[in-house]
Amino acid sequence: MKKIVIAIDGYSSCGKSTMAKDLAREVGYIYVDTGAMYRAVTLFAMRNNLFDSEGNVEAERLEQLMPQVQIAFKLNAETGRPEVCLNGEVVEREIRSLEVSQHVSPVAALPFVRAKLVEQQQAMGREKGIVMDGRDIGTVVFPNAELKIFVTATAQIRAMRRYKELQAKGMPADFDDILKNVEERDYIDTHRATSPLRQADDALVLDNSNLTIAEQKQWLMKRFEERTK
Ligand code: DC
Q1: What is the domain range of residue 26?
Q2: Closest approach atom of ligand 1 to CA 189
Q3: Which ligand 1 atom lies nearest to the CA of residue 195?
Q4: 165 vs 45, more confident
Q5: Quick count: other Cβ atoms within 10 Å of Cβ 188?
Q6: Considering the domain boundaries, does residue 16 fall inside one?
Q7: Is 15's pLDDT higher than 90?
Q8: Cα 112 from Cα 221, distance rounded (Å)
Q9: Which of 41, 69, 99, 168 is the most buried (most CB within 10 A)?
Q10: Structural domain count of the chain
Q11: pTM (2 decimals)?
């Protein structure tokens, strides 16, 4: 069976990473969560006090410090899942906090951040056999990907999913704050100047507002089989 590149893009909290992870495991591909990479750079900026009280990032200072930012994925031997590392430290839990979610959009809008991460992402996909999720995978990172999926669901449903996820992990969560954050990120992600979130012309749309995980998985496997025949 030929190996392909699978690009999964869509709005925040629409279950992209769960479906991408499952698909990768099922078909034996490498999974890359590019949102985790932008979140790790954001955590770095937060730890270096590069945000003012309004949430603006000191772009010039971050650009100077970028050579010190090394992002990598390490396989967790217990769970078998890749975890993101910032300069060698596993930061998988820290990057999922609401605080990082609230600071990530301005960082992901910076062209020098995107250039560095996109280059690293393209290198990861050179051998194919990869499932990558994000916002610009089918449009910028892999415009020639053999299978492109654009995932969407209503903001309310997405906020509820993230709320339950944080609660399950015992992390503080307020539904209204999360909904506001989801809506704000939708706006910034679709309106930023560099690589805004948009559906690639040749992407297949998957609205999973009313789909179960099992139904979604079945749909995805069918698309995968069509493209790898
Ligand atoms: O998928 P996520 O919520 O973990 O992504 C975090 C943020 O990073 C999100 O606000 C948009 C940004 N992002 C991006 O701009 N490009 C990507 N390829 C992935 C994520």
Answers
A1: 5-34+97-228
A2: 11
A3: 15
A4: 45
A5: 17
A6: yes
A7: no
A8: 36
A9: 41
A10: 1
A11: 0.91
Mutate to test the pocket of ligand 1, among 8, 12, 190 (most ligand atoms within 8 A of CB): 12
Residue 213, pLDDT score: 87
- Residue 134 belongs to some domain of the structure: yes
224 three-state secondary structure:
helix
5-10/130-134 β-pairing: parallel
The band of 56, judged by pLDDT with boundaries at 50, 70 and 90, is very high
165 contacts: CB under 8 Å, gap ≥ 6? none
- 7 token code pair: 């690009």
Residue nearest to atom 3 of ligand 1 (CA): 12
What distance in angstroms lies between residue 147's CA and the mean position of ligand 1's atoms?
20
Within-domain flag for 15: yes
* Alpha helices for the chain (secondary structure H): 16-27, 34-47, 59-65, 98-108, 111-124, 155-168, 175-191, 213-228
Distance CA 157, CA 120 (A): 32
Q: Is residue 105 part of a domain?
A: yes
Query: In this structure, what token pair is assigned to residue 14?
Result: 């629409």
Mean pLDDT of 88-92: 97
Rounded to the nearest 5°, which phi and psi values hold at 197? -65, 120
CATH code assigned at 130: 3.40.50.300
